[in-house]
Amino acid sequence: MPYDRLDSDVSMMKEAGINVVRIAESTWSTMEPQDGVFDFSHIDRVLNAMNKAGISVIIGTPTYAVPTWLVKKYPDVLAITPKGPNQYGPRQNMDISNIHFREYAERAIRKMLEHVKNHPAIIGYQIDNETKSYGTSGPNVQSQFVAYMKERYPSLDSLNKIFGLDYWSNRINNWNDFPSVNGSINASLNAEFAKFQRSLVTEYLGWQAKIVREYKKPEQFVTQNFDFDWKGYSYGIQPEVDHFAAAKVLDIAGVDIYHPSQDKLTGAEISFGGDMARSMKGGQNYLVIETEAQGFPQWVPYPGQLRLQAFSHLASGADMVSYWHWHSIHNSAETYWKGLLSHDFQPNPTYQEAKTIGADFQKLSPHLANLKKQNQVAILFSNEALTAYNSFGPGTYNNVLRPMYDLLYNMNVGVDFVDPSSKEIEKYKLAIVPALYAAPDSLLQRLNRFVKNGGHIVYTFKSGFSDEHNKVRTTIQPGIIGEACGIRYSEFTDPGKIGLKNDPFLVGKADNYTEKWMELIEPTTAKVLAYYDHPAWGKYAAVTRNNYGKGVAIYIGCGTSTAITEKILETAIKSAGLWGKDQSLRFPLIVKSGINQQGKAVHYYFNYSAEPRTINYTYQKGIELISGGAISAQSKLTLPAWGFRIIEEQW
Amino acid sequence: MPYDRLDSDVSMMKEAGINVVRIAESTWSTMEPQDGVFDFSHIDRVLNAMNKAGISVIIGTPTYAVPTWLVKKYPDVLAITPKGPNQYGPRQNMDISNIHFREYAERAIRKMLEHVKNHPAIIGYQIDNETKSYGTSGPNVQSQFVAYMKERYPSLDSLNKIFGLDYWSNRINNWNDFPSVNGSINASLNAEFAKFQRSLVTEYLGWQAKIVREYKKPEQFVTQNFDFDWKGYSYGIQPEVDHFAAAKVLDIAGVDIYHPSQDKLTGAEISFGGDMARSMKGGQNYLVIETEAQGFPQWVPYPGQLRLQAFSHLASGADMVSYWHWHSIHNSAETYWKGLLSHDFQPNPTYQEAKTIGADFQKLSPHLANLKKQNQVAILFSNEALTAYNSFGPGTYNNVLRPMYDLLYNMNVGVDFVDPSSKEIEKYKLAIVPALYAAPDSLLQRLNRFVKNGGHIVYTFKSGFSDEHNKVRTTIQPGIIGEACGIRYSEFTDPGKIGLKNDPFLVGKADNYTEKWMELIEPTTAKVLAYYDHPAWGKYAAVTRNNYGKGVAIYIGCGTSTAITEKILETAIKSAGLWGKDQSLRFPLIVKSGINQQGKAVHYYFNYSAEPRTINYTYQKGIELISGGAISAQSKLTLPAWGFRIIEEQW
Amino acid sequence: MPYDRLDSDVSMMKEAGINVVRIAESTWSTMEPQDGVFDFSHIDRVLNAMNKAGISVIIGTPTYAVPTWLVKKYPDVLAITPKGPNQYGPRQNMDISNIHFREYAERAIRKMLEHVKNHPAIIGYQIDNETKSYGTSGPNVQSQFVAYMKERYPSLDSLNKIFGLDYWSNRINNWNDFPSVNGSINASLNAEFAKFQRSLVTEYLGWQAKIVREYKKPEQFVTQNFDFDWKGYSYGIQPEVDHFAAAKVLDIAGVDIYHPSQDKLTGAEISFGGDMARSMKGGQNYLVIETEAQGFPQWVPYPGQLRLQAFSHLASGADMVSYWHWHSIHNSAETYWKGLLSHDFQPNPTYQEAKTIGADFQKLSPHLANLKKQNQVAILFSNEALTAYNSFGPGTYNNVLRPMYDLLYNMNVGVDFVDPSSKEIEKYKLAIVPALYAAPDSLLQRLNRFVKNGGHIVYTFKSGFSDEHNKVRTTIQPGIIGEACGIRYSEFTDPGKIGLKNDPFLVGKADNYTEKWMELIEPTTAKVLAYYDHPAWGKYAAVTRNNYGKGVAIYIGCGTSTAITEKILETAIKSAGLWGKDQSLRFPLIVKSGINQQGKAVHYYFNYSAEPRTINYTYQKGIELISGGAISAQSKLTLPAWGFRIIEEQW
Description:
Chains A, B, C: Belongs to the glycosyl hydrolase 42 family. Three copies of one chain form a homotrimer. Chain A is an alpha/beta fold. Among the domains of chain A are: 377-577, Class I glutamine amidotransferase (GATase) domain (Rossmann fold, 3-Layer(aba) Sandwich); 584-649, Immunoglobulin-like (Sandwich), CATH 2.60.40.1180. In chain A, helix 1 (6-15) packs parallel to helix 3 (41-53), helix 8 (187-213) runs antiparallel to helix 13 and helix 11 packs parallel to helix 12 (349-368). The mean pLDDT of chain A is 97. Chains in contact: A-B, A-C, B-C. The interface between A and B is large, with 47 and 53 residues.
């Protein structure tokens, strides 16, 4: 902070209706300027000011960036990655399993918690931030990995066999010979190492949570700020963290969600990130720990967009919307990234719009907080499948998953996420299963049973292809799921961009194409929904549908165009009996529903476009919460450009 | 192998007519699981099974990938390259000149050969695989290189002069000061180092061959699997190996040829790789040690293509067509690469087609094996010119050579390859000489004599430019060959894409262009075939033709379009009196001929297109070997889509 | 030199009118082949031959490339950069602050100077060549930097505050903990380090100049060969050297200017480099130490271009035009780069044209040398702003500056360069200030005063944004200059490519756009020249003009198209009363003027196009110097394609 303006900040926050702030994360070098010398005055100062103003505080443990003196003392604190030893400077450059890092991090956390634990302003703790393994893979990590492997695969013969290490003479015939995985070309071993690296994150967060729980009061929560696969914005499943496993040690899930804005604002990332955050704690509400205010230059919101975004978060089940950051930063790496306030700390259009959000949140919290959602559709994702798929492509796992998610979002079909550890896959009517490249027999058999018992399922290409060790199955493909899908194939190819015979999904010439991948499928019991339009491959099926037991399995054997994928999903949703009133609306008109704390149904209608729109309101009569106006059942509803309405049913 | 199925494999091989398998290559870690502990049971098992089935075996020495324990014991086994020390994992990561590698490799080879040498299934040995120097350039290699230089250039003054080391203060005034070549910017020194690295390969293969010859029986052969410059497929001259020198220690040349397929299948790589393999042992027949069955996803053959490919290999003189690999691999790096069998080991369309190939080979071997070819045209390539040209461009040497090769292939002009070491350049009527950038005076004088004595020659730009040390000649360009070519130039430029004046080759507006390079040529005695169409350079010649002695030299001074190059080559072929009946066919209709063991002429007609074609058969009456049908002289011949006919003349 | 031909060279030089050569630069390994063993015979030989021929010599200290033995003895001579330790081979790979380098360089310089100092052929000395810091940033440099910081910022608390090191826990709480800047993500610290690296260059050149001055005679000069930001040619402000500071130790500025040629020859780089060279010594004439003769293949000059270029240098104030290099080099890295002579040393078209230049120079020197120029327009550049701007973009500083320079060049508006150290900014009528991202308060206040006192100024976006420590200002933007500009903004964005409302600059639809950056400007006292044409941002100003005191400040808040920028500059020039007769000509017709030694006005008219042109000559009657013909006032003047006329006024 270039000059002292705490009082002004607090007063501007109050004016904007801000009732929680998050502090202390990544301030280790301020809090412990020298080895063992602690200074909490900056924390105390803020805690006291916030408390006085009635603003609650989430305190972050400061471990996400290490101080200079620690690296000077123990250079091994910095991770060694496949690119070599890290240099001091960036955040997230440490080896989270290093003993010196752990020793000093623990002391710093305990000192801080000891100091602040009784402060009344604190409502919760955030452990670390956007934690990952950061590619740590030096000797320290390698020796842990060898121990991990030894425990899981006590027999080297068996390990060599399962991982196929004969190939290119990679056999490990003595544990002492185990070479660094950094140079490995064995995708099975690399996938296991990636899994091990994710387990380091789970273990590390559990370790921090345990320390924090020794100090925290029962009413205070522990959270983390998970983030997503980054493609310039929050894009997909996080490859480096097993969110479902890591979230177990938290009281409440927290995420950051960053997304394109202006003409590119769609709400898809808000919905995607929210659905993941809600799902990782079994349907519980979650915190949006960070999202953009002005953000990148190209993300400065148009008038109305900041409000649209904030209420979109709530509609997915968020119980907090917190901006990173309050004011823009004047030095270092991210001066281009703008907060609620610009560098000048003056009220600006973005801040002015935030004030209206604060006011509405304050007024409507009893109606909006703790929204409960009930979805019939689940997307089954898998960190193991992601790693395995990304070893071989085409493209990336998230490039298969996200388009399917987005199409469901565009159709106003609410989804939860499940992963192979989920107990409740069976409660859904329809499961979407993109690119489940690697999976154990047990999961695939479970999915077969799911269909047999009446479930509907949509698989994409490459699903079921390899086992949990990234070993390609020796059975006819797609292996175990071939039974529920009623298909088989033994060859696959990529002939470029080709059509489907006779445009079976009626998408028109421009959209009737597949690309990047095609399996040469023969139906056993399945009905063929589409054949390839190709002189050599025309006899093979591209998309199939099979009745199996009481359920239905649809299999997409190729990279379908968005329009085709949409039609297939539509077919599946109808087949599962889930095509309802909300499906009469399409993006940019988005509807999200849930049950609030009063047990009343709440419907959010969002207009993600620059044009005002009038839609049919299809639910019971209710009250539009922002305006307080009454809404008749089956009436017309006008949505302003980049605007929204929230209707609480009244009956 | 995920489970034991040797008997099934052998039986499926038999069914497909497979009569040779290649084993043991890169299995060092299986054969010697611990230092000095040998286990040959997997080799014995296969040898016995094959022998029982009447399938012959080529055994590879296992040295192409090193075991974990060896690297643990002697880390210096891994090569140090300009990118730093290699890591364990990939194949071909070792320093082939390292004493520890050599010591352990020799022991492993001897142990294996001692064990298998009397087995009756073995017909030959493959030494190592796709051997190169792999960029090895650490201190071990540097000190060998300095010794090599000291022997060749005992005087440092002379070395400094020849290599131009005064430039940028690079003089070496004391052998002890000789810096690592890795950082050198001296293209002469770098070219010499590249040559030295190629000599490491020659020496290494000679060393292995010598060991193997101590054990092998007289009727068994020694081969190697040479590969080509890789551009996603087998593209051009291998920069890292001097094929003609390295092949000297072999009994029979072996190559792998990988090529695009489906709509991109042209046969050009099959022909190119075959011509090189045949030429490297002076016209002897050769083995296709590896080629694709299904291969990359985008290479899965259309129906008929696998047959087309197999017989195309024979038509260039191959005596074996061997697929890499039998079945697809379930783990590690190349699960995407499909063998004859898919991962499911079941008969699939590719395997089914292979069965017909096996059957035909069995039936027709006496007519097809050991085909002898007589070509009148040679392409003169040079490893030295390649390295030198690639230092300065434009583009790469292979990007000059391959288009010329492909045009000759398209015109059905059979070619051999010669290099500067070839004794028999003079026996050809026409020599094509692309980008002979670096060459000793003696070679250029020899080429002048070749023309004087009646030879025809086609040079491209940059030929004759520098001496064998990559030192630009101080004479007027193109130096020595200027005499035979009847031209001179002292300036060259690149004005982008420009035309030739008045479209002299009648290729039409779209094709009448040159690009990337232009020499500002003045004829001395030559006739100008084309001038540049340019306001500043219009007085200079682009392409010339000169009568010199009894012969003709054509010089192409610029980067001509494919259409222009084709016309120039056509001119040269006609001028050399080689334009014959086969030239009435053009790609996709390819004809290849030779003399079989019965002394009869055999003509292969290939249709590299998806449309059936009818052509004029222009040779004597004969028998179509596949069908057994009689063919009249000068009759019509129908070629199915992706199909072929083989006619043995009968008279 | 492949063979001895000094006499021929000298005679060909004489024939071409060459009267100065530059020697010895980067020949350390020839001059001192062994540690302490010196051999000056090659220098003596050339000095004597030149002296005999009446050709003067500039001798370069040989320190720009280090000999092998020095690196062998002291490997630390090679710089360590963020990419790791340098390898031997390239030039400019040393740590210019290394004590061993300095010790040996000093000895070599002193030995050479001691040896040559009395030779009558020498007219001056060039210290080193194209000197930069070459990214040196190893421990040696780091420790110097810490000392430098300690001296400037004795209080770590203050340093942490000014540089914002709290961010991501980067605080330095003890000087011993100061981490290597190589890994730093703190743009303030990185900018300071870049400045420190520039100071190493200044100090190093000063050190060499001081040594040389101990030996040189009063009439001999000291120069350096400065170069420019390289973008395949001399493009912009050199980021690694503070030219104005470094030039202080020289007697005369020297530069190399390399530029596209053939159809891409515009003269802009000749003018840009010349204006910088002239400005760095306060308007003094300068030497073009290197420029291309044939150069890259694509730069071989069309007939007439070499002349056009040579006289263009003179028109900017050059007193020497020297080609790099005399003859083309036969080995090593740059054989593709062609000198006046090709590798064949024969007279070629380029050399033939050079002879006419030499003849004209000889004849006209009294009229052309020491041309004095008086410009009313200055471009204010800043190395500090360059580094800071390049940390954050969009694009690069030079990509903002060069287009503005080029537009002024195209309009025939002569400019000088000034930087923040310049005493004489105030003497100009119009200051162009591109992207002055980082600047101290004092400079911005000075610029406000400049306007108040009657100056005209044109700022681009991002000017005034941060202080001299790359810390964003906490005031409303654009900070201090907001007063003179009469504007304010607190948000900025990038919506892609959008128009300006109602095409205010009348540039037509295709050109009416801005892109990459837009500030959402509100005028306080300014008149809005253009609003954004955008649904959300339409109320904000894009370009403004403000009367402030007696002057005018124009502010461009966005990335304007070339056509718009041109119109704005035209507006500013007119507003400053500088729109004159030369502005009736536009590129490709370029006019440059000055006063020669006779006190007469000289006007150069250049035609940078392939078409002859006739123009109105708007000055007093005079003599065309090349032809000697009389020119009437207000007459017509014909310029050949790629030709020029030089008129000396006579009255």
